[in-house]
Write the structure tokens for this entry.
Amino acid sequence: MALRVLLIDDDARLAELLSGYLAQHDVVLSHARDGIAGIARLDTDAFDAVLLDVMMPGIDGLEVLRRLRKKSKLPVIMLTARGDESDRVVGLELGADDYIPKPFSPRELLARVRAVLRRAQPDLAGERVFAQDLVVDVGARRATVAGREVELTGIEFDILVALVRRAGRVVPRGALLGEAGRGDVAVGERTVDVHISRLRKKIGDDPKNPQRIRTVRGIGYVLPREAP
């Protein structure tokens, strides 16, 4: 079955280029020329992933992402200007699954789409990892705390998996995204801290005295195997 991908971008030439290339690889590309049109397509049609340009007239890509994340976990790859770190940081914090700077090759884009979908697609026979009262079903991308399911963004889930897999061991802050399978997301340590802060809140960790995800000053983070 062909994959269905929505490109939200005001660049008609890019849409034409990608459509021809992706069609050769069993991917059907639909195109929305601006944020309003993109939101409308997302409300009325079904897609496997979204390619979302940050800079567009009217509603920009970040606002589209904000609205989308209020109702959907659909995988989103942000298209950003090369070297514009601030857009990448904000996009990832809002719940984007990946980013790719322009200009890019269609081949690289296809690889990114497939990688994001591999992370997002459930696999009922997948790995399950445990620590304290956390249970993480890696294949189904489902996490529970004391039996309560928690809603996580894609990158928050991957960070939690990395910490639970290495429970009891310190994961350096600068290496955490790589450990989470996000080594291509080079946006600085501050972004890691933001994701950790949000992850703590979602799993019920005390922000003033965290017990589940502890900070090792000057090094990184550790999730103890057993509850204190």
In short: The chain is about 40% helix and 20% strand.
